């Protein structure tokens, strides 16, 4: 087990092409300030991990969706609905805490070396510190939820999504262990890994603000389809992107035996048995990754993946039509445009 030591403070994250489409600039300054306050602890290692989370930034896609959804519902005072103060801001913090806690746990499970360009927390502080810091974030999340209107409904919604996230992660390992991937399993996995939380991020303001059932459903569809597109896109880039753009090694999923969208497409081609063998040996032979990449080009698996991303994004865009036209709704559409093409 990794043993903690007093780690040096990391240098500021280096911007990469993969983070060039960072969305965090769209958040109000009060978000980072409030996040820092919520993560404050008298225990130094927990405090350091919290500071790293704030400093690393990241896309902050999920809390941004929450704040824009609150604005799009046009309920309450404009500044409050926009999330610059008050309940909508606290709700966005809760979304980010759930996401960040899951990342701390995921990095340990995946034995990851880095997160957002920095050494993974469990490698710097040890397994126990990393896991307990994630649990600390979940505890702070519950404290924030308890103070919000509709606390019971929101707490149940967060609990349901946390359960789905856990199931998605475990199912991914289960499918890799059994070696019997299917498109249906893949959809369930990526819904759990990514789409469920984005669905909550979009729909939670409807619970908070007492919006209509139609508006809640519209935001659920928006977040769900955005999340599915986001994860398919991420998986395509993991297999077919460039390490200098991604900030991590290409082909990580293949080396972990995970059949993502393009690989599943290849399993239904004449090269299917060859690809299945590569998947089962977790791309352990030299040239395995390059071979799968070449087969993707030969059989159009990458193009099929990008068509699926586009289809999902259009479903998300259509859902927004059930909301009144507003600058916030336009910003939600703009988020879709940023994911529409490969980088």
Automatic annotation (TrEMBL):
Q: Which Pfam families match?
A: polyprenyl_synt (PF00348)
Q: Which InterPro entries match?
A: Isoprenoid_synthase_dom_sf, Polyprenyl_synt, Polyprenyl_synt_CS
Identify its protein family.
Answer: Belongs to the FPP/GGPP synthase family.
Q: Which cofactor does it need?
A: Mg(2+)
Per its record, how is this protein called by name? Geranyltranstransferase
Record EC number: 2.5.1.10
Which lineage?
Bacteria, Thermotogati, Deinococcota, Deinococci, Deinococcales
- The keyword Magnesium is annotated on this UniProt entry: yes
Tell me which Gene Ontology terms the entry assigns under biological process: isoprenoid biosynthetic process
Q: Which PANTHER family match?
A: ALL TRANS-POLYPRENYL-DIPHOSPHATE SYNTHASE PDSS1, GERANYLGERANYL PYROPHOSPHATE SYNTHASE
Positions in coiled-coil regions: none
Record's PROSITE patterns?
A: POLYPRENYL_SYNTHASE_1, POLYPRENYL_SYNTHASE_2
Q: Which SUPFAM superfamilies match?
A: Terpenoid synthases (SSF48576)
Q: Which GO terms describe its molecular function?
A: (2E,6E)-farnesyl diphosphate synthase activity; metal ion binding
Sorted keywords for this record are: Magnesium, Metal-binding, Transferase
Q: What class of enzyme is it?
A: transferase
């Amino acid at each position: 087990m990794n043993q903690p030591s007093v780690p040096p403070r990391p240098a500021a994250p280096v911007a990469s092409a993969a983070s060039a489409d960072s969305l965090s600039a769209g958040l109000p300054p009060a978000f980072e300030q409030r996040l820092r306050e919520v993560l404050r602890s008298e225990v130094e290692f927990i405090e350091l991990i919290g500071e790293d989370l704030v400093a690393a930034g990241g896309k902050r896609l999920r809390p941004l969706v929450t704040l824009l959804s609150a604005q799009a519902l046009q309920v309450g005072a404009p500044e409050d609905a926009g999330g610059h103060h008050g309940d909508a801001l606290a709700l966005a913090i809760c979304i980010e805490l759930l996401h960040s806690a899951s990342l701390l746990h995921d990095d340990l499970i995946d034995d990851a070396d880095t997160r957002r360009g920095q050494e993974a927390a469990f490698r710097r502080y040890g397994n126990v510190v990393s896991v307990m810091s994630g649990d600390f974030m979940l505890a702070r999340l519950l404290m924030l939820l308890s103070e919000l209107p509709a606390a019971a409904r929101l707490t149940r919604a967060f609990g349901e999504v946390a359960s789905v996230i856990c199931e998605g992660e475990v199912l991914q390992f289960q499918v890799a262990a059994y070696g019997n991937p299917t498109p249906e399993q893949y959809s369930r996995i990526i819904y759990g890994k990514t789409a469920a939380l984005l669905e909550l991020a979009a729909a939670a303001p409807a619970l908070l603000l007492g919006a209509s059932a139609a508006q809640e459903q519209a935001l659920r569809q928006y977040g769900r389809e955005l999340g599915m597109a986001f994860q398919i896109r991420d998986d395509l880039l993991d297999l077919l992107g460039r390490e200098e753009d991604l900030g991590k090694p290409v082909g990580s999923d293949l080396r972990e035996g995970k059949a993502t969208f393009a690989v599943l497409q290849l399993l239904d081609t004449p090269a299917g048995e060859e690809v299945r063998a590569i998947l089962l040996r977790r791309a352990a032979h030299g040239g395995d990754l390059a071979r799968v990449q070449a087969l993707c080009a030969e059989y159009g698996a990458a193009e099929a993946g990008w068509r699926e991303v586009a289809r999902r994004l259009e479903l998300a865009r259509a859902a927004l039509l059930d909301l009144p036209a507003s600058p916030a709704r336009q910003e939600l559409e703009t988020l879709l445009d940023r994911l529409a093409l490969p980088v």
